[in-house]
Specification:
Largest sheet: 7 strands, antiparallel
Number of strands: 18
Strand content: 15-25%
Number of helices: 18
Helix content: 25-40%
Shape: globular
Length: 504
């Protein structure tokens, strides 16, 4: 089917790269009965399939759409202990920025047990999110070690055979900053030595009493290292480290061990549990809150940290100092360093950077923190999965809708595999009726995509083929005005394990 359009008015918007004309259109559908006029009034502007040489982007075919959506898919079902809460995970990413500013990580803790899942949403570039995704899990793994294990790690870390503490899942689009690995290791070694010296003053269990304290310590220490590595020394600075520190990243990390699920978060990535009720309906259980100005408690925390004379200047258009949306993040040293340090940096870089480096009304830093909000959750018998995602997903739909989509997708995937099980000759008529009704429900929820994260991304783009095609073919300078980068990790729980061990 071919679609044609006639432009009858245009809205001109200004972008950094020039002008973008967004047409409002009436569409005509070519059919045997002739041209049928349709008035479209939708959220998504029309991108109609006309010849490329006339300046129009052709509509993608269903196969092309699926190829794009599945490009960064990932899943694993063989990395987790058999007698444990995790069955498998799926993940996917879709970029809007070029290059994508989101990152993701999954890793097994080899010395202490447990699994880490993380989503990192960069802003002001991808440098900080990249660094945090490479480094944070190792900081957490080190912080969780007992004193004797930390001593052993310290002994081997400068050798060619360091003590393994982490087994990372490698995604196909992963990137490792080879040029910075040596500097990263130096900072990590310093952290190990300092932790040992402080721990040795107290007891053999280490300086952190609980995993909540350990997660907070890992987040804060990494942020301190990112800041100190970028600080100018003797009139020079490391440009790579400065790029990391001047950009920023939100982060949500989940640590799962047995029935305990700890979530540490800064910024507006989210983690939400999907729980299934007896009647088959789905409940969303949020494990995080967004750290932004719309969170009254969080904005009040910022106000309480500064003199009352600054209160009216702290937020404008729900942005910190008129610029930043998240109120907690890694990096973003422009909102953390002292005025003196920022002026020194501006003098080093040149007068052209002075106004852009120091925000307006910058008097009593830090205005931004990287101290995570940590929660502890005990897995229930009815918990089925966990969704971690950057705000590119949550901007398109609420928690409840996300959980419903993943839950129904999970039900649909069970359709073919479970119906053949059992001795149906021994069932009563009513039980057979229930099984058939359940199968009809599962068939109704069968989806195009086998990967649950891809299924969510397709819905975030509008689900209907034309809308998804339009959202995928916006040029890079326009795409960001309609959608953000989307990164999703879905952790599926072992229902048998939770049925036997989970809380009611």
């Amino acid at each position: 089917m071919i679609l044609y359009c006639r432009i009858f008015r245009a809205t001109v918007s200004h972008f950094n790269s020039g002008l973008y004309i967004r047409p409002s259109v009436r569409c005509y559908q070519n059919s045997k009965g002739g041209l049928k006029k349709q008035q479209e009034d939708e959220l998504f502007p029309q991108r109609i399939a006309l010849p490329e040489n006339r300046g129009y982007v052709p509509m993608l075919s269903p196969l092309q759409v699926t190829a794009i959506l599945t490009l960064n898919e990932a899943s694993s079902d063989n990395k987790f202990p058999v007698n444990g809460p995790i069955r498998f995970f799926t993940s996917n990413q879709l970029s809007s920025n070029n290059p994508i500013e989101d990152r993701r990580s999954v890793g097994q803790l080899l010395q202490t047990g447990g699994t880490l899942f993380g989503v990192f949403d960069g802003h002001g570039g991808a440098a900080c999110a990249q660094a945090v995704s490479e480094r944070l899990f190792e900081y957490i793994a080190i912080t969780l070690l007992r004193y004797d294990s930390l001593e052993e790690y310290s002994h081997y870390m400068r050798t060619s055979t360091p003590l393994p503490v982490l087994d990372l899942h490698r995604f196909r689009n992963d990137y490792v900053s080879d040029d910075l690995v040596h500097l990263y290791q130096q900072s990590l070694q310093k952290y190990v030595v300092e932790t040992l010296s402080v721990s040795g003053l107290d007891d053999s269990e280490g300086q952190f009493a609980t995993i909540v304290d350990q997660l907070k310590s890992a987040f804060l220490r990494l942020d301190e290292d990112i800041s100190s590595e970028a600080m100018p020394v003797l009139g020079t600075c490391n440009e790579d480290m400065l790029s990391i520190a001047m950009s920023g990243s939100c982060a949500t990390v989940v640590h799962i061990k047995d029935l305990d699920l700890h979530t540490a978060s800064v910024g507006d990535c989210r983690a939400v549990i999907g729980r299934q009720e007896v009647d088959g309906s789905w409940i969303a259980v949020p494990l995080t809150v967004d750290h932004n100005a719309e969170n009254t408690k969080e904005s009040q925390r910022v106000k309480n940290s500064h003199p009352k004379s600054e209160t009216s200047m702290l937020f404008k258009n729900n942005r910190l100092l008129s610029q930043l949306i998240p109120l907690r993040a890694f990096g973003d040293v422009r909102f953390k360093w002292s005025v003196k340090d920022l002026k020194s940096l501006a003098n080093l870089l040149g007068p052209a950077y002075a106004d852009s480096i120091i925000p307006n009304h910058y008097h009593t830093p830090p205005y931004l923190i990287a101290r995570p909000e940590v929660t502890n959750y005990r897995l229930k018998k009815s918990d089925r999965f966990l969704v971690l995602a950057s705000d590119g997903l949550w901007e398109t739909m609420p928690n409840e809708k996300v959980i419903e989509l993943v839950g129904d997708h999970l039900v649909g995937k069970k359709t073919l595999g479970e119906f053949a099980w059992g001795n149906y000759g021994a069932l009563k008529l009513g039980e057979i009726s229930n099984l058939l009704r359940d199968r009809r429900r599962r068939i109704a929820h069968r989806a195009t995509d086998d990967n649950g994260a891809t299924h969510l991304i397709r819905h975030a783009l509008g689900y209907e083929h034309r809308k998804v095609s339009e959202m995928l073919t916006f040029p890079p300078q326009v795409s960001r005005f309609y959608r953000d980068d989307i990164t999703i990790v879905i952790v599926y729980f072992d229902e048998v394990y939770l049925a036997q061990n989970g809380e009611d």
